[in-house]
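Appendix B, record 7
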Amino acid sequence: MSLTFEPEMLSGDAHWPPAQVSTASSPHLPRMVDVDGVLAPQASSNVEETGIGQEVLSDLSLKLGATVPRFTSEWAAEQLRLPLQLVETVLWHLKEDQLLEVLGQTGLLTYRYATTQRGRDYARHLLDVSGYVGPAPVSLESYSAMLHWGTSQQGRITFDDVKEALAGLVLPDDATEVAALAASSGRSLFLFGPPGNGKTTLGQSLHHVLKGALWIPHCISIDSHVIRIFDRQVHHLADDFDETHGRTDRRWLRIRRPLIVSGGEMTMAELDLAYSPSLRFYEAPPHLKANGGTFLLDDFGRQQVDPNDLLNRWIIPLEQRVDHLTLNTGQKIQIPFHLMLIIATNLSRADVADPAFLRRMGYRLHLDKPSEQRYAQIFERYAAAQKLAAEPALIGGLIERYKAEGRELRASEPRDLIERVRDLCRLHGQSFMLSRKMLDTAWAGYFGDASPKSD
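Structure tokens (predicted):
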């Protein structure tokens, strides 16, 4: 059995009614409400509007209640991130089924509850199936619809946007144009070239062209299975919205568009759902958490997995904008794949990617070692950012030393050498400044030897 969603082409029309947005063209998209100029998912007024059904809410509420000796309707509503009256309706049904008992009133239509022995027994059974207890989930279909809607709201990316995002880098004009083409088209980008020449920095900087914020859920549910989406380590709340506003569905969080970087530690297993036998729910893989933002696969080819196997893993997502994940029951689910995928490698293209895969990458960009002129520009710009004077003769002498020792110029090394001069000045209690003598000491400490042959 497999579960799929139908990708919906959602309108990005900015002239929706300001108070409430009709979602007739997208039945799975939550109704949106204007809150101080921000369109937000509207709080559900009944169980049907939550999109996940009475049984899911009842089971989650009972598991929640079984974690404490007694609780109030208000406490349960806060934990579930649902409206108080909706939660009270669910709890009252549990009371009628003799799974909860009422201990007293806390308000006009709110109560104190305790779990009955029958309720505790049933809660243990439910926890054996799924150990998740926390904010109520949304459906996979609602998540997909909200993601499509969120990406449709992003404004057009212009060449000026990309130039601004990459302003901290000194790049050849053709490199900036290829990066702009990848970002504006929404296609993937394959970065390759010798190490230390800005591939990682370019990938991270390019992320800043993605505009606006994004709504994501705490988690999604598929039958009795729960997949946690929100991750505090990689998702950062947007600062243009108060999530405690009473009119909104607090199962959703407004975040800045995510940037997730995975490096040489990645394994094939990390690209599927991570099921915890002890917790009995799933953690979303990194590219699912990156939806709506950027996923940078750095140091490609250094992973403990065959590069072709890893690349083949991305073929269907790149072509169809969907990915397939597997539950521990063997059930396949189809999830949206809406992100900017950037793959960066120091290795030769021929060693890590076959032509069939490269054809599926949107754009390819070779970042080679800098010319002497570009190296000097990088050095001058970084020195100026640190409020330092970098005389042309000083930089020229440095470049001559590269030649004398047979070293290749690298775009990262002006920064590295200047930062080691900073360390030296701090060590000796001197003002931060550049001199030939200081750069000589920094050079020796950075390269460790006068000759690259012993590297």
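Remarks on this record: Confidence is low (pLDDT under 50) at residues 1-24. The first strand starts at residue 2 and ends at 3.
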